[in-house]
Amino acid sequence: MIVFLAVMGMNAHAQGVTLQNQEEEDSTIAIIGYFCKNDSMTYRHIQGKEKIVGNDTTSMNEIAEEFMIVVTDSTADGYKMELIPLSCKVEGSDQESLLASLLWQDVKNLRCRFSTDEYGAVQHIENWREIRDVLKKSYKTVLDSLYAGRPEVDSFMPRKQFESILMLGCSTEAGIKEQYSELNQLFQNHGLEFNMNPVEGDDVSEMGYPVHTKLESFYSVKKDEYDFDGDYVVRCNTVTKLSGEDSKDLLSSSLAVLFTGEVKDSVNKYTEKALEDGLTVTNIEQSCYFYNGWPKLLQTLTEINIGNLGKRIEYDTIEWTGHRWGVFHFPEEEESGKDL
Predict the structure, then answer these.
(1) In terms of DSSP bridges, do strands 112-116 and 78-91 run parallel, antiparallel, or are they unpaired?
(2) Looking at CB atoms within 10 Å, which of 102, 124, 238, 294 has the fewest?
(3) pLDDT digit string (tens) for 32-71?
(4) DSSP class per residue in 10-34
(5) Which residues of the chain are under the pLDDT cut of 50?
(6) Are 236 and 214 in contact (CB under 8 A)?
(7) Positive or negative CA dihedral for 268, 262, 102, 143?
(8) pTM
(9) Which three-class secondary structure state does DSSP give residue 233?
(10) Among candidates 29, 61, 71, which has minimal Cα distance to 287?
(11) Residue 194 burial by CB count (10 A; 0-12/13-18/19+): exposed, middle or buried?
C-alpha cells in the first residue's frame, strides 16, 4: 500500500506559493516561523490504520509517540533544532507493529539535529550519518528477530530483498529526512503563502493521475485559553481516481517490490477483478498553527477505496501537548501544557 499513498495527489504544500511571490497581505496567509533560541514544543504523534469491509471495521495497528522540538540556536539565516524522542506505544500484531516496537528500543535515545531556513522550512539533517549508522544496525537486529521467529516469511518476502529496501531508505540525507515524517508534517508549509479565498479545481498529480483539489486558509477563532489571536489554519482536500488498468499496474508494481512467487501471483489474481472499476484515494489534510508559526495541530486522513475489497483508512495526527517559548526545559520539568 506504500505505492498507493504516493498517488494521493497534491497536498497543501504543493498548492502553496513561495514567499518570494507574495500577494497583498490581506488576501493571503504566510506561514513563517518566528522562533526563538530555547523555544521548546512537545507533541503527541498518533498514526494508525483501519480496514473496512462492508459493515466490519478492523483496526490494523496504531503507533503513539511523544517527542520534543527544541530550538538550540537562532540566526538571521535560520534555526538549529533538535528532535528529542520521549516515548512510544505500539498496538497491533502485524509485521509493521513488530518492526516499530523493536526499532524504538534502538532509537529512543537518538536525537535528530536539523537546521531550517529563516522561514522555518527544514533544510538539513545535521547528524544524518550518525542516524544512518544506528538505523542500519537496528534494521539488521529487527530483521534477525522477525525472520528467526517466522522463517516462513522468507519464502514469499525474501529477507535480502526486504533488507536492501530498508538500507536504501536510510543511506542518504534525503532518505533520513523521509524517515522523520514528523519533521515534514510540522514544517513542510513554512516559507509558503496560501490564498485566503477558497480554491477548487482539477489538476494532475505528480504521478500523472487526475486529482480534484479544494484548498482554503483562514484565521481561526479563539475557543479556549490555549488559543491566541492570529492563530491560523490551512485545509486541503484531494480526491484522486485511477482507472482499472492503472490500478492493476500500480498494484503489480508495488507487489513486485517485496513479494515473490506464488504469493505475488495469488494476490494479483485475487485483486484483478476487484480493481476492474479502479480505485479512489481521498486525502483530507488540516494544518493548524499558532500565531508565531509553531505547529499546533496537524491532521491527515487518507481513505483508499478498492471496490469489492473494501476501504483502507490511514490516519495521522500530531498535536501539541506543551510549550515553553524562550526557556529550555528538560522533559521532567514542569511546562505549559494541556490535557488531551
Answers:
(1) antiparallel
(2) 124
(3) 999 999 999 999 999 999 988 877 878 788 999 999 999 9
(4) --HHHH-EEGGG---GGGEEE----
(5) 1-10, 20-24, 328-331, 333-334, 340
(6) yes
(7) negative
(8) 0.84
(9) strand
(10) 29
(11) buried
Q: Which of 84, 176, 93, 78 minimizes the C-alpha distance to 130? A: 176
Residue type, 115: S
Decide: 276 and 253 in contact? Cβ < 8 Å. Answer: no
State how far the Cα of 182 lies from the Cα of 18, in Å rounded to an integer.
21
Q: Mutual orientation of helices 95-107 and 128-149 as an angle, nearest 10°?
A: 140
Q: Which residue has the cell 486558509?
A: 217
Burial class (CB in 10 A: 0-12, 13-18, 19+), 188: buried
Q: Which three cell numbers stand for residue 189?
A: 508549509
Smallest CA-to-CA distance from 32 within 44, 16, 45, 48 is with: 16
- Beta strand ranges found along 54-108 (DSSP E): 56-75, 78-91
- Listed residue (83, 98, 20, 5) closest to 318, CA to CA: 83
